[in-house]
Amino acid sequence: MERHPAWDLVSRCDFILVGSAVLLSLLGAVMVYSATRVELAAAGVDPKFYLKRQLIWLAIGLVVMVVVALIDYHWLEQWAYVIYGLVVLSLLAVLTHFGHVSLGAQRWFAVGPLEVQPSEFAALALILVVGGGTFADLSGFSHPRPQISAAVQDLQILDKNDQALQTMDQLLQEDGSADDTAGPPSS
Q: Is the pTM of this model over 0.85?
């Protein structure tokens, strides 16, 4: 007898990770409640308004998490460049009259009561393109692609910069310790 795919999801689920995320979200909702209840009660509004709103978004997020976990993400690899192109177009479109200005910045699309920020999707699209393009054909890391070599070179440059910063920090500490031995300033 064949098992339902949902059982495979449950068997592969990292309950510690999911539980930690849910607990942190609940803790955040309680913190929002404690930070806003007095002010809302003084204004004559339901003190649990923001708490209820946070819990609704938490429930929606949990449903989205389960739906996304049920989807086989490997099909995204073949669509990575198309998704990336669409996201770049949406980033450009936000600068036109389609973009919504809020607090002096034009970064969102207003979709009903929601505001969608395309740069959040840009990060995911970039992960798809770089991750799929870099690691798609690596078998045992025997033939690294140029992106990996470039990343290693970048890390080496950062390491050299870190060494230079450590040297400067040591020099500043030595310079500061010489001043400390002089004693307090005389009055």
A: no
